[in-house]
Specification:
Layout (H helix, E strand, L loop, with lengths): L2 H21 L5 H15 L7 H29 L4 H24 L6 H32 L2 H44 L1
Helix pairs in contact: 1-2, 1-6, 2-3, 2-6, 3-6, 4-5, 4-6, 5-6
Amino acid sequence: MSTPLLVLSTCFLLIGVGFLGCFVHKLPGPVIAFIGMLVFIFGMKISVVPWGAIVLCLAMLILSYIAEKKLIPYIAEKISDYGSAAKWGAIIGSLIGLLSILNVLFIMDADFDLESGLIILIIALVVCFGLLPFGCALLFESISRKSVTLALKPATAAYATYVMGLVLKLLVCFYSGYVVINYEGKIREALS
């Protein structure tokens, strides 16, 4: 296996694990995706990625970490105090949603035209990343508090916290992937 191919496969593997880490709570997804981008940048013999892209991704990584650890919990605390049951419900619901989305993508085949396939995908995204995490957070919190009415506000706070953190993590991972995909073609041109 040639060095550029090994570097590319390693960086795409790391960025893929980083995307997975956005949904798995204990896996630092944005950090892994950033490392994947650094493997790409420093692993290639020719550097065409500007330092501004690295600094921007690092700044996004730091800001998402600060927001996830300090700002988002503060906002959620203003909505309602929630327990670990709602938090784990939102995480489990999003993992079920992720598996469901992957299942929908594998089931969709060439028989779907673009318009109906896009509609199905949008509905699946709303259900899998909107309704499932919130429903599981509400279910887990209502089991914990023994009442659905008492669980609604904490479940909403846990879901809002989870979604805001997920969006920030995904932004870092998407930008890392964008840098690799965007500059991979330029490196290929330079090597030819």
